[in-house]
Amino acid sequence: MGISDEITLASELLHLLSKDQAWHYRIVPKTKQADALTLYCEDSVDENSLSAELEILFGHSVLLVPIAGEHISRLLSKYYLKDSAGESGASLTLSQDTDDLLIKLIQEAKNLKSSDIHIERYENKCRVRIRIDGLMVERHLLKAEEYPALINKVKIIANLDIAEKRLPQDGRINFRHNNHQFDIRASVLPTLYGEKVVLRLLNNDATDIDLNSLGFSELDLENYLQGIKKPNGIVLISGPTGSGKTTTLYATLKLLNKETRNIVTIEDPVEYTLEGINQVQLKEAIGLNFPAALRTFLRQDPDVIMVGEIRDTDTANMAIRAALTGHLVLSTIHTNSAWGTVSRLIDMHIPSFLVANTLNTTVAQRLVRLLCPNCKSTGPFSDAAYPKQFKPYKPVSTHHIARGCEHCHYTGYKGRKAVYEVIPIDQELAIEIKNGNAYIQQLLEERGIRTLAQNAFDLFSEGLTTIEEIYPLLFNY
Question: Do 467 and 399 contact (CB within 8 A), yes or no?
């Protein structure tokens, strides 16, 4: 472990330098006293010359602590991330116009391929965090006096009530700036010290979504395609929030989108726009919910219906009704496993014989971070690292370890891949559903159906990810 691994910079110090200043001078803040600023710098520079220039720049006495250049690079990449194009980008100085600040926050998140921006207020500080590859990263500290203006700006462009500070609000922003154009879902939540805003960046471009590149194994993809090629029935994808279910659904719709088919969707929110598909945005406030939209869809002569989520009994009943009347229904549901979808529907008071007659395919899905190919290393591996009840399918004596480099912002990971469990419902499994049998592991093994744990283990054994990433999935063994 190097010195850069041991150094932790307090978030209160990060705003002392802009991103441009940090990278230009290759410095990072160490401490701040009333009349002096202590900075880490490269051990190869002329300390006297650099400190004199920095004292003029910052208007404070500057003390320099030299460390190796490789450690400076690691700290810069960790705390002053560059965007995906490799540019440091404009710094977010908080004394500027609120409009400009918000635009730069959104552009920075987009360049870093972030999915969410969190703007938060606490007793002693305000901060901005973004989510990259599923993990939160703190990016900026805001001045307390700047915070209300930023929140109000978000409310204005999202068409929310700026006077309402006691109740949660949800809105949508159509962001257009320079070459960027995409939609943002805004959520405002009153908290103890002020309102928190979460901005979900929605990718309108569906051109790169392809079922073949999402992570299906050959058998799983074959079984999944078999289910969506049927003219009627239900295909359900399960998994927690942020597991990529919606992306799989859109890839499916893109495949099914033919001139000869009428496809309608009800979504919350509409994350991608697909030409040739009739997409409806959920609006609970005026009564346009999933059940209401489904009732109308049945009078719209659809071939394929996509429901964003089956979250209650009414929606489940309408989806079953649509499948029984000759439509193919695609949707998501929250369960821990593919077979758990059956129990969930029955818990929603759907008769087991209806579930058996309408369910084509049930899918479970998770996202796993992939190791950065530029810096991963190899080390010895012991079976003691597995959960106690997990038995590996094949021996693993060495494994790959996340190290971290400039290419992955020193996280050790770069990108994510979906892991699937696909169960096609045939006649024998339909009988098990009618009989209420929850223990079908032997039947799945006879069909060669691989579980989430097995597919995740394959990624680990092939050196694509780490044991830490797949560890939670091994409990579903």
Answer: yes
What is the residue whose two structure tokens read 């479970």? 364
The three-class DSSP label of residue 364 is strand
Token output for 284:
């609970």
The DSSP H or E segment spanning 127 is strand 126-132
Residue recorded with tokens 């239900």: 234
Here the tokens at position 394 are 């094949």
Are 63 and 39 in contact, with CB atoms under 8 Å apart? yes
Residue 221 C-alpha from the chain's centroid: 23
CA–CA separation, 424 and 449 (whole Å)? 9
- 238 forms beta bridges with 333, 364
For residue 411 the two structure tokens come to 């996280």
Distance CA 433, CA 234 (A): 15
DSSP-based three-state secondary structure for 277: coil
Helix (H, G, I), strand (E, B) or coil at 18: coil
Q: Which two tokens stand for residue 147?
A: 């915070």
The SS3 call for residue 59 is coil
**Residue bearing tokens 């971070």:** 369
Token pair of 346 as six digits: 């029955």
Q: Distance between CA 384 and CA 454 in Å, rounded?
A: 18
Tokens of 17: 């330098």
Residue type, 473: L
Note the pLDDT tens digit of each residue in 68-103: 888 888 888 777 776 544 443 333 433 345 567 888
Enumerate residues 6+ apart whose C-beta is below 8 A from 20: 88, 90, 91
pLDDT at 187 over 90: yes
Alpha-carbon distance of 5 to 254, in angstroms, equals: 45
One-letter identity of residue 331 = S
Per-residue model confidence as pLDDT tens digits over 408-432: 877 888 889 999 999 999 999 999 9
What stretches of 367-451 show up as alpha helix (H) in DSSP? Answer: 427-434, 441-446
- b/e per residue, 213-234, with b = 16+ CB within 10 A? ebbbeeebbebbbebbeeebbb
**Position 57: which residue type?**
L
